[in-house]
Structure formats: C-alpha cells, structure tokens
Amino acid sequence: GKGIAVLTSGGDSQGMNAATRAVVRVGIYLGCKVYFIKEGYQGLVDGGDNIVEASWSSVSGIIHKGGTVIGSARCKDFTTRPGRISGAQNLVDRGITNLVVIGGDGSLTGANIFRQEWPGILDELLAQKKITEEQRGKYGHLNICGMVGSIDNDFCGTDMTIGTDSALHRIIDCVDAIVSTAYSHQRTFILEVMGRHCGYLALVGALASEADYVFIPEWPPEIGWPTKLCSKLTQEREAGQRLNIIIVAEGAIDRNGDPISAEKIKQVVVDNLHQDTRITVLGHVQRGGSPSAFDRVLGCRMGAEAVMALMEATVESPAYVVSLDGNQAIRLPLMACVEKTKAVAKAMEEKQWDLAVQLRGRS
Ligand code: F6P
C-alpha cells in the first residue's frame, strides 16, 4: 500500500484530532500504511521516533480531546533547505510519498515548497548515495494535501477552518458568565478575543452574545469612535440595561491603523462615563478544551477527503487543500487559496479594508 504521513503544525486548534483520526482510519481502510509525524515539521526533520506507523486503535479515544495528540510546533529548521532535505530522507526511508499537513497558511506554504523541491532534493540524495536508484524512481513525486486548523477562520477558500466553531462556543460561554457578574455590579466589561488580524471570532461572538459594541480589524471605526461608543453605551443604560459588553478583536485598529486595545477602550469609558469597568482577556481558553460537534465532524470529513485527494492525485495534480464550501468538503488548489489569503493581508496593510473583506469572501 501507499505510504501516507500526517502532521499538525503551527498553533493547535480543536478538531485537529478528529482530522488526524480520519486520515489514519480512511488511509488504513484503503490499504495504505499511515504514519504519524510527531511535533510538526520538527519531527519530520528529526525523524527517528518522531515518525511512527499508526494503527486503527492508535486513534481511538481522541476525537473528544482538544489540542493535537501528535504534538505541534513552529519549526525554524524546516524553513531551511537542509531541514527539508533531512525531511525528504526520512520520508523516502519509509516509502512515504503522501503528506497531509494540518495547520495554518504558513505551514501549508511550507508543504508546497517541499513538494516543489522534492525531485531536486531526491537527485541530491541520490548523488550523495543516501537513497538508491530504485528509491529515486519509485518515490519521485510527493503528493500534498492540507487542511486548515485554526480558530481564526482567516483562510481564503473555506467557509470554516477547523477549531473556529469550538472557539466561538468558548467565547459565548465566557460572555454569558461575565454577563451574570456584570449584571450584579452594573458594570461594563471589555472582552478581548483572539483572531490575529481577522475579526471573525469577535464579530460572530458579539452577534451571538448580544454584545453592545464590537471592534474588528476589517471595520476600523472613524477617529471620533469614542463619542459614538459612549453615546451607544449611555443609550443602552438609559433604556434600562444594567451592564454593557464590548468585544474587541486582538487585532482591532482605527482608521489610522493604530491598535484599539481593551485598555484604550476602558480609558474612554471610565473618563467619559465613569462606569465601573473591567477587562477580561480570554486568551488561550479559546483554543483549548473539548472540540464542538461541528469541529469533530468537520475534522472527520476533511480528513477523509484529504486521503481521497491523495489517492486520486497524479503527477499533474496540484497540492490540494480541503475546504468547506456550501457544506461540502471539497479539494481546491492549495496555492491559489494561499495567494488569496496573502492578498487579504496585503489589502489590510494598505488600509483597503473593503477589498480585504471582498477578497475573503464567504470565509
Ligand atoms: O492563530 C491562532 C492564534 O490563537 C491567534 O488567534 C493568536 O493571535 C495566536 O494564535 C497566539 O499565538 P501563541 O499561541 O503562539 O501565543
């Protein structure tokens, strides 16, 4: 059978285990030899015990766990050619020519570079007699399939990334908890949520929890935002509300591109309205803990599709990424999605926020 390896890379997210489990089980079901690569790309570079064959039962009892049981890392070595050469040797030694990478756009770009360099690297290994002629012939092409594991939902091409739904559940649980204590003390709370440069978690979290105000990077407020904020909060209090909830994305900015921090917002509220105000930074609570049913099933579906994509890949096939499109798990050319994601980042940097939102499309 064909050799498939799976690794998780970059920041973890809930549902990665479901995806890993699906890769292992669908792979074995189709007669492949499936390997775990532990600790992300570092395990690929280091080889040894980091690359182990998976069995059907080795992925039992992991679907409900947060994080990634095979470990993840942000790896410097794999960004260098010697690191990738070492990784290729480790794969060829085990007859692995199919790689599933679960990670963010940086991790998936790394996978694509690896795939492009693969024939050249194998020639180099052959010249150094580190692989045989037979291995060079048999393993001459590397197939790649990515899945996006990230709570941020910041990848173009997919409606949802693996982990976003669980993070949202965590966020609304936290807001609900805060609301009860805010009510008792008639307080205003500012909640900072994750998402890097993407406001998805903040926006959807705010909608789902009936927050009074939200700050997101894609919709920077006018410079006079403090006045608008204060009048909205005052209006809510005058209407009988005992508390206010403001959600701020960690990447929120104003029209000048200057950060709008929870501290800054607090200062505005305290100085102008003299409300009893507290800040809660949700942090990594959003990224840990049990995955939601949606993320478990999303991971399963994407993992299964990733293996199918690899089994059907030919030398002409591009590197793929599995995406959720209108509730279907489909495969898309990886680099087209990465390029679009980079174009969003560029538009944001150039303060072309409408363009960024338009490019991001449904995600
Ligand atoms: O990309 C996921 C994410 O949780 C972001 O929302 C956040 O900005 C970042 O990772 C935090 O990174 P770290 O876990 O390295 O502190």
UniProtKB/TrEMBL annotation:
Residue positions binding substrate: S150, I151, D152, R187, M194, G195, R196, E250, R278, H284, V285, Q286, R287
Subcellular location: Cytoplasm
Region: N-terminal catalytic PFK domain 1, residue numbers: 1-363
Signal peptide residues on this chain, from the entry's feature table: none
Positions of the catalytic residues: D152 (proton acceptor)
Residues that bind ATP: G11, R74, C75, G104, D105, G106, S107
Amino acids binding Mg(2+): D105
Residue ranges occupied by any Phosphofructokinase domain in the UniProt entry: 4-309
Assembly and binders: Homotetramer.
Family membership: Belongs to the phosphofructokinase type A (PFKA) family. ATP-dependent PFK group I subfamily. Eukaryotic two domain clade "E" sub-subfamily.
Functional summary from the UniProt entry: Catalyzes the phosphorylation of D-fructose 6-phosphate to fructose 1,6-bisphosphate by ATP, the first committing step of glycolysis.
Protein's recorded name: ATP-dependent 6-phosphofructokinase
Organism lineage: Eukaryota, Metazoa, Ecdysozoa, Arthropoda, Hexapoda
